[in-house]
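Practice problem. Given the sequence and the SMILES for S-adenosylmethionine, write out the predicted structure.
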Amino acid sequence: MQSVDRQRFAQMAEDYDRMAPFLVPMYEFLQQEMIRQVDLVSLASPRVIDLGAGSGRLLERMLTVCPRASCYWVDSSEAFLATARRRLGRFGGQVTYVLSPMEGDWVSRVSAPVDVICSMSAIHHLEHDEKRAVYARSFDLLAEGGWLVNIDEMKGLDADAYRGSLDVWVRYVAEQMLRVPPELQGHARQWAGHFENWKRRNVELFDRPKTKGDDLHEPFMDQVSWLKEIGYVNADVFVKYHLWCMVGGRKPWKVPARQPDCHPMQAVPV
Ligand SMILES: C[S@@+](CC[C@H](N)C(=O)[O-])C[C@H]1O[C@@H](n2cnc3c(N)ncnc32)[C@H](O)[C@@H]1O
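Answer key:
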């Protein structure tokens, strides 16, 4: 991650933690739906990785409904690490903290196989090939039947629909700002400053080509297709709320043998 990006995240860690349930549309609903999708409560002692886990709100929710879970918090931000340690401290050794970019070598620091790999509002910071690589590396780490689920900002079916979904978030934030309780107004003002930058990058400069450090939204249908290509089954968009999509898939129970590059009959001389 570029240093300008790292600084942006460092400033917003605490504000993001306090404001996400107010200002990210359907924040808590989407987390609950992820837990439902992977049927977390049916697993006796699930092993979970959260990529770009931030302040740990999703892991906190998972550990609360599934007290025997063991989790990896993976994120590149020291500021978010400090916030997450405060939020998740009561779960003690059930949480392992891996400070690493998703593009880096977090894989060697987790013990596979795991049952669930999840992510929320983080993978869109990666470039095209990096996103696909994270999905592929996750596939390798999953137990058979394990789930990869990503809730993220994604493009829709066409540019008009995508543009409309960005505008919805702008209106949503304007409405929700009026509902922030007085004790959180300070965080709300700070967060609003970060959101102005988001609006400039994504709405005002809508047509400008995006580079690393921007929000690199990609179509939800493309992301479902990548999952299928990698080998995930049950791949789909499970929830879509304007810009936010929950896509995912499951590692099959028996990975099919790799197909030969050409049919054996083609090698037989005529
Ligand atoms: C918008 S916050 C979301 C945090 C959390 N997942 C949530 O939904 O509350 C984005 C998180 O992704 C992390 N992040 C961004 N780019 C990353 C990267 N390349 N590698 C690892 N973490 C990254 C940030 O540090 C931050 O914690």
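Check your answer against the key. Residues 156 and 162 are 5 Å apart (CA to CA).
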